[in-house]
Amino acid sequence: MATRWAAVAGPAPGPPRVVGSTALGCIAGAQALPPDGPGWQAVRLSRNRGWGHPALVAFVRDLAGAARARGLPALWIGDLAQPRGGPMPYGHASHQTGLDADIWLDLSPKQHTSAAARENIRVASVVLPDETGVSRSHWQPGHATLIRLAAEAPGVDRVLVNHAIKRELCRAHAGAPWLRRVRPWRGHDAHMHVRLRCPPGEAECRDAPPPPPGDGCDASLAWWLTPEARQPAPRPPSAEPPPPLPAACAAVLDQRR
Ligand SMILES: [Zn+2]
Predict the structure, then answer these.
(1) CA 194 – ligand 1 centroid, Å
(2) Which pLDDT band holds residue 2 (cuts at 50, 70, 90)?
(3) Which of 22, 56, 147, 233 fits 52 for a cystine, CB–CB 3.0-4.6 Å?
(4) What total of structural domains would you count in the chain?
(5) 62 C-alpha vs ligand 1 centroid, how far in Å?
(6) The domain that contains 78 carries what CATH number?
(7) What's the pLDDT band for 242 if we cut at 50, 70, 90?
(8) Rounded to the nearest whole angstrom, what is the distance from the C-alpha of residue 24 to the centroid of ligand 1?
(9) How far from 237 is each of 87, 94, 140, 233, 245, CA to CA, in Å?
(10) Parent domain of 37
(11) Is residue 104 part of a domain?
């Protein structure tokens, strides 16, 4: 199923329309993020995952501009969504509705880079191997600036980062209201994942529950260093088939351009 979604080269026509949720949904009328713009270069263009709701494309453009205005170097932009969203054959469970973007946490100065070279860029983790904190040789104040800019941007639901990054932000900025939207997760040690809320007027779009109140610098963050979190028990195989995509997504997939 995912391979069919990945095989469609372009968006479904018409106005933007988000159906379902980020882990089970699709989008019609998606816009392409230009591969280059003021303050950004998109990477791994061959994947054709640079599509999103116009609100997401505007978010990336505005974030790159705001970062540039703060003196940060150009951003590498990773995956947004496939042209019609939907499940991906590899790489992500979410990113299905054109409301998620991966922004790499790389603050090195960048030359204009060819599409071929952008296929193979490697970015160092900013997190220590044991994930107790950030690496002092890789973490920079500019990383916090960039994450904060994303978390404070209008329409942002949450920013997912490695729990060690959240710990560092809690150490330096405890109590800051924007920390509520910065949520700890596994991985995400070399990129942040930004998710937008359903844009206004998107009646078929389903948001996740909002993050709990508070800055999140609490026991829920400490949990990530417990043995339970570090060595999760293997999940028993489920007898249930995976839930189907919303019915409207079948038409989005098949719509002629
Ligand atoms: Zn992501």
Answers:
(1) 7
(2) confident
(3) 56
(4) 1
(5) 19
(6) 3.30.1380.10
(7) confident
(8) 14
(9) 21, 21, 42, 12, 21
(10) 20-226
(11) yes
